[in-house]
Automatic annotation (TrEMBL):
<keyword id="KW-0378">Hydrolase</keyword>
<dbReference type="InterPro" id="IPR005196">
    <property type="entry name" value="Glyco_hydro_65_N"/>
</dbReference>
<protein>
    <submittedName>
        <fullName>Glycoside hydrolase family 65 protein</fullName>
    </submittedName>
</protein>
<dbReference type="Pfam" id="PF03632">
    <property type="entry name" value="Glyco_hydro_65m"/>
</dbReference>
<dbReference type="InterPro" id="IPR008928">
    <property type="entry name" value="6-hairpin_glycosidase_sf"/>
</dbReference>
<comment type="similarity">
    <text>Belongs to the glycosyl hydrolase 65 family.</text>
</comment>
<dbReference type="InterPro" id="IPR005194">
    <property type="entry name" value="Glyco_hydro_65_C"/>
</dbReference>
<feature type="domain" description="Glycoside hydrolase family 65 N-terminal">
    <location>
        <begin position="14"/>
        <end position="268"/>
    </location>
</feature>
<dbReference type="InterPro" id="IPR017045">
    <property type="entry name" value="Malt_Pase/Glycosyl_Hdrlase"/>
</dbReference>
<dbReference type="GO" id="GO:0016787">
    <property type="term" value="F:hydrolase activity"/>
</dbReference>
<dbReference type="Pfam" id="PF03633">
    <property type="entry name" value="Glyco_hydro_65C"/>
</dbReference>
<dbReference type="Pfam" id="PF03636">
    <property type="entry name" value="Glyco_hydro_65N"/>
</dbReference>
<feature type="domain" description="Glycoside hydrolase family 65 central catalytic">
    <location>
        <begin position="323"/>
        <end position="690"/>
    </location>
</feature>
<dbReference type="InterPro" id="IPR005195">
    <property type="entry name" value="Glyco_hydro_65_M"/>
</dbReference>
<dbReference type="InterPro" id="IPR012341">
    <property type="entry name" value="6hp_glycosidase-like_sf"/>
</dbReference>
<dbReference type="InterPro" id="IPR011013">
    <property type="entry name" value="Gal_mutarotase_sf_dom"/>
</dbReference>
<dbReference type="InterPro" id="IPR037018">
    <property type="entry name" value="GH65_N"/>
</dbReference>
Length: 767
């Protein structure tokens, strides 16, 4: 833990007191989004202190030219940037002829932020003394509408406390923005058109290279004591990429002046004419009005929470943590559009390019399958199917593979590889396995097999072809090996026979072969169509199987464990407990050379394999491998603690499971890795959900049935969650005395609890 200023609360993220050192961290933590767009919690008014400005639009990116010191063959030509979108929230404010800027005020008191997760809004309030002696109280509420998802709303209240005040509001929209992480300090937006109305304005711009067109808009209303003051702008200033209106008003001491600003974006992904679309959004939002928009927001979030909430009794920090994670996941991805995916920072920052990683398949899909309609998860699978051709092209052009072998990109926006580190781009090939596993996991959970003959089988064949060609035969070992890889543990590069990579490669081939047979038997028309399309023969499948049946896995017979890679035991095996805390996190303290030679693990590869394929191993095997690798794991990957929490619970190590749960759930709130100012770890938040449902709840799907082995941390009085399993809603409530199951569906549901089958009737419950 590196920070502890967020106040414990069941439903809100709260900060009290103004501290310039916390501004950037809070900008991340208090971010808001609605699936279509999002923004960091930047101040609306001028702030001259250190800040990280960021607004983002789903699906809009820029191919920033890769910047490396030494070009290697196969480097991606660009790194896809999630773009800092035009600014619509800005409101410069003058009070008695002095600019409002918290960095320059004489005094700031009673500063408070609240992100209300239950109702989906962000509030900031403070009192300030300006250098001219004017004292004011300010309250700002902002939200991004879930229903009208191209619009956001700001209500900015100012009350003079010690004297009458002349207040000048200068709301603006500005497309002249840059990215904090731009490689070449380029501008990414080309202004096209500015349009001004009475109280509304529009700036249309397009991205260079990708030519996404975006119209940024605003509509302003000035109120006095809650009533429309019918004030028109006194001046309108504009350039090619910015419009700013000026509204002047005088308000008596103790009275409240307000500007309500509606703003947002319409994009060419969804509109043929973005300007006309923006005008329509403003008309709809204005017709509804602030109070109705806010109530609709509250109602929309209530519907989301009805299904996705997890309750925890007796531990406020644990409760706050899981709700923060669930809230951010729902803000980031709604599942409406199969062209979109889940960026690792969501709408909270620019790091990692905001693109799609293997995190979606390995960690996020279970959350969306269980808390949404299954179509949401199917859309995520469809996203990869639609990019299969580019995955084949990637394997062919960058690695020299042939015959339809597919290597999905480590990072992508449109199916093209756009990660700018060679050792990740071409060595961290295990991501192919996660994509295949997600197809299996979707079918296992939903029972919807139709995706495989319709789309998934082609993906599985491309992936199996990749593993067949990527493996090589070792005469020394008389087995197939996979050389020169990086596993999920990115603190080991270019190593041989990473256990997780080898294991999932074998599984992918076996699973693809099984599905080919099943589709041939049960969906002959689809089988014929796919086989003709990919020109696959039974002889080729036999070649795959030869590789899978003879895959090498590194083991230590002495220790009774699988090895992360061939040379792991050659390292100086000093456990983490003996590592000076001043050296953590090692990725910020040590040279990369030292990190690579150390035994320290960012994310345990072997345990990731045990998580995916739990039923392939005995409990004793899990125990030996867990205890060995946990001692060397520094958990500097956000994806690490959740898997350890799940496995610790399975091993009845409940104190450890609880500690890891707190770490994954409060990773950003408590800033464990000293990096939250760059944005939150959105995709790993799905792992937090898994650590409760699969960890403490012990939920598994076996033989088309739900299995549970519920456990509860001693720190909790009880917890509950809901899951949507094959269109039946099951509620699970656990306390120290009993576990209660309640089903809401059209038929009885048989589940297995601690190894014993139990049948639940509709609206009845069992203990």
């Amino acid at each position: 833990m590196n920070q502890d200023y967020i106040k414990p609360d069941n439903w809100s993220i709260i900060e009290e007191g103004f501290d310039v050192e916390r501004v950037k961290s809070s900008e991340s933590l208090f971010s808001i989004g609605n699936g279509a767009m999002g923004q960091r919690a930047n101040f609306e008014e001028t702030y001259s202190g250190e800040t990280f400005q960021g607004s983002y639009i789903a699906g809009i990116y820029y191919p920033d030219k890769t910047k490396v010191g030494w070009w290697k063959n196969g480097y991606p030509k660009y790194f896809a940037k999630v773009l800092n979108a035009p600014n619509w929230i800005g409101i410069d404010i003058e009070i008695n002829e002095e600019n409002l800027d918290l960095h320059n005020c004489t005094e700031v008191r009673n500063f408070r932020r609240e992100l209300n997760m239950k109702e989906g809004w962000y509030n900031r309030s403070f009192e300030a003394v300006l250098k001219n002696g004017t004292e004011i109280a300010v309250n700002i509420r902002r939200f991004l509408s879930l229903d009208l998802d191209e619009a956001g709303v700001i209500k900015y209240d100012i009350t003079p406390l010690n004297k009458d005040a002349k207040i000048v509001y200068k709301p603006y929209i500005d497309a002249g923005v840059t990215n904090e992480d731009a490689n070449w300090e380029e501008k990414f937006w080309e202004p096209l058109e500015v349009k001004k109305g009475t109280n509304e304005a529009f700036v249309t711009a397009q991205t260079f290279k990708t030519h996404f067109k975006v119209t940024t808009f605003m509509h302003n209303t000035i109120l006095a004591n809650g009533e429309d003051a019918h004030i028109s702008p006194s001046t309108i200033d504009s350039t090619t990429d910015k419009v700013q209106y000026t509204y002047g008003t005088i308000i008596a001491k103790g009275q409240t002046s307000t500007i309500q600003k509606i703003g947002g974006y319409t994009v060419s992904l969804n509109h043929e004419n973005t300007l006309a679309g923006a005008e329509k959004v403003i008309k709809s939002a204005v017709a509804l009005g602030y109070e109705t928009l806010l109530q609709n927001q509250i109602d929309a979030w209530a519907k989301i929470w009805e299904m996705s909430d997890i309750t925890i009794e007796g531990d406020v920090k644990a409760q706050q943590g899981i709700r923060f994670n669930i809230f951010q996941l729902n803000q980031t991805y709604s599942g409406k559009d199969s062209r979109l995916n889940i960026g690792p920072k969501g709408f909270t920052g620019e790091k990692y390019g905001g693109s799609t990683y293997w995190d979606t398949e390995a960690y996020c899909i279970p959350f969306y399958m269980a808390t949404k309609d299954q179509q949401v998860a199917r859309n995520l699978l469809t996203y990869r199917y639609n990019q299969l051709d580019k995955a084949i092209e990637n394997a062919k052009d960058n690695l020299g593979f042939k015959n339809g072998a597919a290597l999905y990109p480590m990072v992508t926006m449109n199916g093209e590889e756009c990660h700018n580190e060679w050792e990740i781009t071409h060595e961290e090939i295990h991501r192919n396995g996660a994509i295949a596993f997600a197809i299996y996991n979707y079918y296992r959970y939903t029972g919807d097999y139709s995706y495989i003959p319709e789309k998934g089988l082609e993906v599985l064949i491309g992936i199996a072809r990749f593993w067949h060609q990527r493996a090589s035969f070792s005469n020394e070992k008389n087995q197939y090996v996979i050389l020169g890889v990086t596993g999920p543990n990115e603190y080991e590069n270019n190593i041989n026979n990473n256990f997780y990579t080898n294991y999932i490669a074998k599984w992918c081939i076996d699973f693809a072969s099984e599905q080919i047979e099943k589709v041939a038997s049960e969906y002959p028309a689809d089988h014929k169509r796919v086989m003709e399309k990919v020109t696959l023969s039974s002889a080729e499948i036999q070649k795959w199987k030869k590789v899978a049946d003879n895959m090498y896995f590194p083991v230590s017979e002495k220790l009774g464990i699988y090895l992360q890679q061939d040379g792991f035991l050659d390292k100086e095996l000093v456990p983490v407990k003996d590592l000076d805390k001043s050296q953590r996190p090692i990725n910020q303290k040590w040279s990369w050379d030292r990190v690579l030679r150390s035994p320290y693990i960012k994310q345990a590869d072997v345990l990731q394999g045990f998580y995916f394929f739990e039923d392939h191993f005995s409990k004793e095997e899990l125990k030996r491998n867990f205890e060995f690798y946990e001692s060397f794991t520094v958990h500097e990957s956000s994806l690490s603690p959740c898997v350890h929490s799940i496995q610790a619970a399975a091993l009845d190590k409940m104190d450890m499971a609880y500690t890891f749960y707190l770490r994954t759930s409060r990773l950003d709130l408590d800033d464990y890795n000293k990096e939250v100012e760059e944005g939150c770890h959105i995709t790993s938040m799905a792992g937090t959900w898994m650590s409760i449902v699969e960890g403490f709840g012990g939920m598994r799907v076996k033989n088309d049935q739900l299995h549970f082995s519920p456990k509860i941390p001693k720190e909790w009085k009880g917890y509950s969650f809901k899951i949507n399993f094959r269109n039946q809603i099951l509620k699970v409530a656990v306390n120290h005395n009993e576990t209660t199951f309640t089903v809401d569906g059209d038929q009885d549901l048989t589940i297995v609890v601690n190894g014993k089958p139990q049948t639940i009737s509709k609206f009845a419950q069992i203990n």
